[in-house]
Design a protein that fits this description.
The structure holds two protein chains of two kinds.
Chain A lengths: L5 H6 L9 H27 L4 H9 L1 H29 L3 H30 L3
Helix pairs in contact in A: 2-4, 4-5
Chain B lengths: L21 H32 L1 H12 L1 H28 L6 H29 L1
Helix pairs in contact in B: 1-2, 1-3, 2-3, 3-4
The chains are: A mainly alpha, B mainly alpha.
């Protein structure tokens, strides 16, 4: 027998007020990451030891740039969700937990935007 | 806090009380590799940023990545990435409600370890062959 109110059941958000959204986005990005990680590894393998001209030349290819954009977005989204779970598991003080969660979002966003900016700058001819 | 009734309650047994098992270790390693990759991604975008910055700065960053220490970090990053990806595939399978039999769990754990080491070595051999 469920103790939940009919309204709570309809909303389906639970005590964390976000429902299954975190779980779902973790899986969504995980599935997206399967092909993207293969691309990432290949990109790194071919670019280790390359000079700047070769690297910029590779990123100048729109398909490579687009794949890098997809990869950066999906991975930074996934890693923010994952680190959030780690923080919620181990950081118990309300203040420090909030600080860590803020830091997590800032770090993930900074990584994402730095990567996207670099790829787009090179891709657009910088 | 000193008079809190919480203090007298028995605590649930934690990690240290259980016998370490392969599946436990896999779970812990999945989390550690995830956390490692979290910071490793900063290195990856630092590399991209350097390429967008200038040839001089790119040479500096590429020099760090190309050094023995940089290569060691990159090797660790590759292994963590492959291990976390294979571990993730197991989780996606479990999400469908399959693969929970003990023999299968044990088999998949061993396959993940062997697969992550083999694939990492293969990637690095390919990388050196391509250069």
């Amino acid at each position: 027998m469920s103790m939940r109110t009919p309204l709570g059941k309809v909303r389906g958000l639970g005590s964390a007020k976000s429902g299954t959204e975190h779980f779902w986005q973790q899986r969504l990005t995980a599935i997206a990451n399967i092909p993207l990680v293969i691309f990432l590894v290949l990109f790194c393998v071919f670019m280790v030891g390359a000079d700047r001209e070769e690297m910029a030349g590779a990123i100048a290819n729109p398909l490579v740039a687009l794949m890098l954009v997809f990869t950066i977005i999906s991975i930074t989204w996934h890693m923010r969700l994952g680190m959030q779970v780690i923080i919620e598991d181990y950081v118990h003080g309300e203040g420090s937990k909030l600080a860590c969660l803020l830091g997590n979002t800032f770090f993930s966003l900074a990584v994402a935007l730095t990567g996207l900016f670099a790829v787009l700058k090179i891709s657009f001819g910088g | 806090m000193a008079n809190s009734p919480m203090k007298e309650r028995p605590l649930s047994p934690h990690l240290s009380i259980y016998k370490p098992m392969l599946t436990t270790m896999m779970s812990i390693v999945h989390r550690i590799t995830g956390a490692g990759l979290y910071f490793g991604m900063a290195l990856f975008v630092w590399w991209l940023f350097a390429a967008a910055h200038s040839p001089g700065y790119f040479d500096y960053v590429q020099g760090f990545i190309g050094s023995w220490f940089g290569r060691l970090v990159l090797f660790g990053f590759t292994w963590a990435l492959v291990h976390h990806a294979l571990g993730g595939l197991r989780h996606l399978l479990w999400d469908t409600g399959r693969g929970f039999e003990l023999t299968k769990i044990e088999w998949m754990a061993r396959a993940t370890i062997a697969g992550s080491v083999a694939l990492t070595l293969l990637i690095w051999i390919a990388a050196y062959a391509a250069r």
